[in-house]
Amino acid sequence: MIRLTRPAIDDHDVAAMADVLRSGMLVQGERVGELEALLAQRCQRTHAVAVSNGTAALYLALQALGVGPGDEVLCPNLTWPSPAHAIANLGADPVLVDVDLREWNVLPAALVAARTPRTKAIVAIDQFGNPARAAEIAKALPDVPLVIDAACSLGSDMVSGPCGSAGIVACLSFHPRKVITTGEGGMCLTNDAALADRLRLLRNHGQTAPGVFAAPSGNYRLTEMAAAMGIVQARKLDQLIAQRRALAERYIAALPALAFQQPPPGSASNYQTMGVLLPEARGGAQRDALIAKLRERGVEAGRLSYALHRLPHLKTWGDAALTRGRAFPASEAIADRGMAIPLYPGMAQSDQDVVIAALRAELGHG
Ligand SMILES: Cc1ncc(COP(=O)(O)O)c(C=O)c1O
Predict the structure, then answer these.
(1) Which of helix, strand or coil describes residue 152?
(2) Contact in structure between 244 and 345 (CB atoms under 8 Å)
(3) Per-residue three-class SS string for 97-130
(4) What count of other Cβ atoms lies within 10 Å of the Cβ of residue 103?
(5) Count of C-beta atoms within a 10 Å radius of residue 121
(6) Of all atoms in ligand 1, which is nearest to the CA of residue 149?
(7) Distance 55 CA to ligand 1 centre (A)
(8) Are 330 and 77 within 8 A, CB to CB?
(9) b/e 324-337 (16+ beta carbons within 10 angstroms → b)
(10) Which atom of ligand 1 is found nearest the CA of 175?
(11) 3-state secondary structure (DSSP) of residue 23
(12) Mutate-to-test residue for ligand 1 from 52, 55, 125, 272, highest number of ligand atoms within 8 A of CB
């Protein structure tokens, strides 16, 4: 089976983790700070706060910005539900906004249209590694704090700088499906010193110093084992991205009949997920049948993402006040016809050729 993705783990990752285990210093040692410094520099930020996963990064970022009951937060409708869950878990309302059919991210105009006096913050996602139009969003809504969900986009590039550098806070994930991994892990990146202090406090039981509690909070810390792995992973980031981009370009050239996600002008994706949008005739059932057919040919593919307004547990909010009659044609199309195909660093070209041939055969593209 040609896997959809594989984490890029080598002997250096194993050795780095083993060193931590032998040291006996498993939490709150030096590795977390070292990883924070590395990624702050890579993302052109002054502060980085490592946390236990990407969802926690989003939750803490919004909490640090003061999001709470009675607030609305604008949130892309096409996504893994983490950002909407983070908003809801703070007692605020996620206001779902449709994405653009080419970029698969929210555009500034859609956010402007969904804004109300209750809008406390915006989450924009660099979906599948494709940079959101962060500078344009900040320009269109300059008085609303912008959180970038950069879970997928470490190593991607906007015109204004690397992904992770935009927004009042950008949130990374180090889940194994992401471009670098620590097993579970995440990070908040910001240039705001006060916000960074607040994030450090919130990640560590609300403590300002050992035993000095300033807010009720939880434990969202990253372990030293995870950080040690993250350091090794971060050092090979550029090489991993180069491989991903080369594989993605090969797919795009070989499959001209398929629609791929489009980066905004001047931006470049890391291709954290290689997504294709199948032709209109192929709805959800046909996409799922195609996934099954590809599996028979030894190729693992998967559905791309979710249209949040259709998830039953979110529907109650969506149906009530929050969608306000807005339609979600693009996120519905991508949720129904979007498919992820295998791409990971170290993928053999011969394996990629098998994927290309299987897709051409199943889609009747010769
Ligand atoms: C867009 C997006 N945001 C947030 C997350 C959450 O990251 P994590 O799995 O590290 O909690 C994910 C990942 O799965 C994601 O794809």
Answers:
(1) coil
(2) yes
(3) ECCCCCCCCCCHHHHHHHCCCCEEEEEEECHHHC
(4) 19
(5) 23
(6) 3
(7) 6
(8) no
(9) eebebebbbbbbbb
(10) 10
(11) helix
(12) 55
Q: Specify whether the CB–CB gap between 305 and 78 falls below 8 A.
A: yes
Q: Which two tokens stand for residue 285?
A: 């059932």
Per-residue pLDDT of the chain (366 residues; tens, 9 = 90+): 999 999 999 999 999 999 999 999 999 899 999 999 999 999 999 999 999 999 999 999 999 999 999 999 999 999 999 999 999 999 999 999 999 999 999 999 999 999 999 999 999 999 999 999 999 999 999 999 999 999 999 999 999 999 999 999 999 999 999 999 999 999 999 999 999 999 999 999 999 999 999 999 999 999 999 999 999 999 999 999 999 999 999 999 999 989 999 999 999 999 999 999 998 877 667 999 999 999 999 999 999 999 998 887 876 555 555 667 788 999 999 999 999 999 999 999 999 999 999 999 999 875
CA distance 335 to 78: 7
Rounded distance between C-alpha atoms, residue 206 and residue 267, angstroms = 38
Rounded distance, CA 303 to CA 284, Å? 9
* Nearest by Cα to 124 from 159, 138, 195, 161: 138
| Residue 68 DSSP code | -
Beta bridge partners of 209: 212
